[in-house]
Amino acid sequence: MFNYTAQNQLEIFDFKTEFQSKLDPNNRWVKMAKLLDWDRLAEVYSQNFSSTMGAKGIDARIIIGALIIKHIEAKDDRGTIDAIKENPYMQFFLGFDHFSSEAVFDPSLFVHIRKRLCNGDFDKMNQVIIAQALNLNEKDKTKEERKNTDEDNFSHNDSSHEPTNKGKLQMDATIADAHIKFPTDLSLLNDSREKSEKLIDRLCLSLRLPKPRTYRREARKKWLNLSKSKKNSFKQIQNGIKQQLNYLKRNIKSIDKILEDNQLSLCCFDKKEYKYLLVIKELHRQQLEMFQEKKHTVSNRIVSIHQPHIRPMVRGKQGKKVEFGAKINVSLQ
């Protein structure tokens, strides 16, 4: 027989415990007990019972509340009953008016409850809970809209008292220092050449193609001869730049030829590798332009292939005339 006592939620201060302390009104179980529509949930649960036949059953709120606790806490049948037995807030959630250390019902009853309730019953209960939550959200939205309307009206009334802009805004350019090695034309070209060789190896390995000639050993040997030398003349540096430009140009042509001959070869690169390819091509263009026109500056000059957004900035500091990093503007008040 179905059993349910329709009643208003018990006031939290009337809940009797064996301890001197009172329940916290901000506890989640206390708040949830006041928010749920127990009458509608009990109505769904009562559809599986007879109002005249059978023995009087356990109160529907206790059953429904125990199911909610079980799923929220993700406990098994015995664990749910033990948690309710030990927690006065859960007992308040189930509708008790006092704390009890006895089990609300035997854990095996959960098996019969699951047999009695079908998926449709659980769906109906979920719809009741969701509908209640939506109504609460609509009320909150209405309150917020009213509050925003009042604030807009207040700001509109006081618009005449808004202060006007005064003075001048001063901006100062500075830089967020990036810890990179000091870039030289030779070192940048060497890094780009080595990275292009790795890209060629990746393409050939993925597509199972023979590796094109890159002269990597010869190029590295010439680079080491220049980098290890304590003093290099201007002519030696220019010759080294020319050599590295030619090696890098050859590698870029090899990559472009592989990409042109194989339509899906670009898929062999991930996002990071494809970015490296674009940076290497742009760096080769910049270095070739400076070498041919015999200049040392170019717009948006790349000083690191790993962080192409970094830019040089002449600071004039003692011991560190140039800093490298992302440029930022700072306002002074």
TrEMBL record:
Question: What sequence ranges are listed for the domain Transposase InsH N-terminal?
Answer: 18-116
InterPro entries the UniProt entry points to: Transposase_InsH_N
Show the segment(s) annotated as Disordered.
Answer: 140-167
Feature: compositional bias, Basic and acidic residues: 140-165
PANTHER family documented for this protein: BLL1974 PROTEIN (PTHR33803:SF3), IS1478 TRANSPOSASE (PTHR33803)
Tell me what this protein is called: Transposase
Organism field: Flavobacterium muglaense
